[in-house]
Amino acid sequence: MKRLHRLVLLALSLVTLGVHAAELPVVKLFTTGGTIQSKGAHRQKLAEYNDGRVSPEELIADLPELKTFATVEPIEISNVGSPGMTTELLLKLAKSINAELAKPGVAGAVVTHGTATLEETAYFLHLTVKSDKPVVVVGAMRPFTAISRDGPFNLLNAVRTAAAPEAVGKGVMVLLDDTIHSARFVTKNNTYRVETFVSRELGPIGYSDSDRIAFYRTPLTRHTSKSEFDISKLDTLPAVDIVYGYQEASAAPLEALVTAGVKGIILNDSAPSFAKGTALAQSKGIIVVQSDRKGSGRVVLSERTAGRNVITADNLNAQKARVLLRLALTKTTDVKEIQRIFNEY
Q1: What pLDDT band is residue 51 in, cutting at 50, 70 and 90?
Q2: Which of 31, 32, 35, 121 is the catalytic position?
Q3: CB 3.0-4.6 Å disulfide test: which of 45, 48, 71, 158 passes with 138?
């Protein structure tokens, strides 16, 4: 009888576990690489870590705690450092996320990414994911093998956030150091520290605390399901480059880009020599957008700027302005219409 009783209890336990697993939200994990998936030669290697790559399966196996919050299903897009992200990979990633989030049983998505260009990929997804379901882009400042690694806890919190009903409709988010940022406003602020990601003027939208995922605001700019951009049939994007402004800046980069046949140019500051180069670019049908190198604050659309047919980037930094202009150019080359897009996104 005692044995029978134990077998009954075991069967009930297994049924309970099965029900619990069935009730867990499904979160898709899209891996692209970066520090969070890198290995160093030993545990004190915090800045040099090209001694191997971590697979999606290793990331999940390293975090049994994930099973408490979600059923995590991995999809590998790439395993490269973020400077190696290409248009092909961006489109592949966005299309894959759209396909998976369209499935009724999927609650949200997490993307692993290197931190150097993480904000660009996050903003691209913010503009091209066609779902209100949460998408959280996560990275790490220290490799998987480091004694003080931050990646696993960042990943755990990213999955928690992607599975949280409160995260629905917030657009694409970036999560490191327990802090949740909107992809529209976040930027990398420090080369080395774990608290590197900030939203300079407006601050984070929430926090991944131990008791709950706490949100305090939501972005008002257009994104995700309300975005007009459709990349489903695209296999490339228009070429757009950035020219840096400084004292005695040369117009040579502008002239070279005109010769190279780019479709758009982002000026990250003004310079006297840029006026002639801008006019040359515009004469070739190239769209020019004025951003700013300071990292915060709007570029105001003055009468002089409007009169020169130069678009202003609002408070987007140059790298994000480039992302938006590439997508805008898939819709139109009309200056006023592109300015409308920069005002809304």
Answers
A1: low
A2: 35
A3: 158
